Amino acid sequence: MRMFLPLVALCVGCSPADPEQSDAKPGPVPAFSTRTEAPSPNYATLLGQPAAGGKGETWEATSSPPPDAKAIGDLWIARLQEHGALLGYGLAGKTADEAVEMIDTGLTEQEFKDWVTENEWRVPRHIRWSFVPEMSLPPVSQAAQVAIRVWPASRTRTGIQLQALFHGKVVLRDGCFFVGFDGKPADKLAWFHSEIGLGVDPAGYFILRDRISGRTLARLGEDMSWGGPASANIDRKTKQALQDACGPGEIYIVGSPEARERFLTQYPHLREPMLSPPRPSTKS
C-alpha cells in the first residue's frame, strides 16, 4: 500500500499566441516589470535542445526485513517528516499495521548522505529508497532578479500531483505574479513548485523554466495549462513576504505550468478538431 502526504491544494488559468510574432522583441526590462502578453517562441527548436539534468537515484532493498522492521520504518518516516523531506512511502501490505518497504524522499542522493552522516545514522537496507534529481538552475536568474518583488515558490521538493487539466495564464504585474483561469482576470497570487524557476530568454521575455532539465516551459503571458488541483508546501516566511509585497490576496498554487503551444508542439494531433462519427444509415 503506497501512501502520499496530503498537501494543501490550490490552482489557476490560458489561449495561444501568434507564432508569426515569436521573433518580436519587447522593450527594455524596467525594475518591477509587467508582462501580461507574450508570443510563443519556437518550441520545436527549444524541445530539441538537450536536457541539463537527469533523473533521481534509487537504492533498491538489499536485505530481508528484520523482526523490528515496522518500528524502523516508523522511525525513518518521523525523521523525514520532521526534516520536511518526506514525499511518500509504501507499506508491505494493505493495512496501516504493515512495515514500511519503500520511502520517497524530497532529498537528492547527496543531500540524504550528508544528512545521515551528520546525524551518525545507519540506513536500513531492507527499505527501497528513492531520491529527487539535482537542480541545474537557480530559482531566479540574475537577469530576472531586479524585475520582481518576491519569487513565490516552495522551498521543499514536489511529490505526486493530481493530473486534471487546468487552463489559464500567469502574468507579471509590477513585479508580482498573478494567475487567472480560462480568459478570466488574473487576480490571484501565483505560487509555483520548487522545480520551477524564472529567467529571461534571448528575446527579452520572462520565462518559466524547469530547474532540473533547464528547459523553457512557458513565457509569462502565454496561454498555459497545468495538472491539478496542484499542491505544494507554502512556507510561512515566503508567504508573508509575498503578501507584504503584492497584497493580501488569495494564493493559488499553479504548480508547474506549461505553455499551451509547447504542449501542442509535442502532441500536434491535438491541434486537429475532433470529428463526430457519421450518423448511422436510415436505409433498410
As a percent range, the share of helical residues equals 10-25%
Can you count the helices?
6
Shape summary: globular
Largest sheet: 6 strands, mixed
Overall number of strands = 16
Give the DSSP E fraction (strand runs of 2 or more residues): 25-35%
Question: Which class best fits the helix and strand makeup?
Answer: alpha+beta
Total discrete domains: 2
- What is the first-to-last residue Cα distance? 56 Å
Segments where pLDDT lies below 50 for 5+ residues?
6-22
* Mean of all residue-level pLDDT scores: 89
Order of helices and strands: EEHEHEEHEHEEEEEEEEHEEH
Strand order of the largest sheet: 15-9-8-7-13-16
Radius of gyration: 22 Å
Biased composition (Polar residues): 33-43
Region (Disordered): 16-66
TL;DR of this structure?
This protein is an alpha+beta fold.
Describe this structure in words.
With 284 residues, the chain is of the alpha+beta class. The chain has 2 domains: 2-53 and 136-268, no CATH class; 58-130, no CATH class. It is built from 6 helices and 16 strands. It has helices at 43-47, 69-83, 109-119, 142-145, 236-246, 260-266; strands at residues 2-4, 9-10, 58-59, 86-91, 100-105, 128-130, 164-173, 176-181, 188-192, 196-200, 206-210, 216-219, 223-228, 230-231, 251-255, 258-259. The strands form 4 sheets. A 6-stranded mixed β-sheet has the order 15-9-8-7-13-16. Strands 1-4-5-6-3 form a 5-stranded mixed β-sheet, covered by helices on one side. The protein has a 3-stranded antiparallel β-sheet with strand order 10-11-12. A hairpin with a 5-residue loop joins strand 11 (206-210) and strand 12 (216-219). The N and C termini lie far apart (56 Å). 33% of the residues are buried.
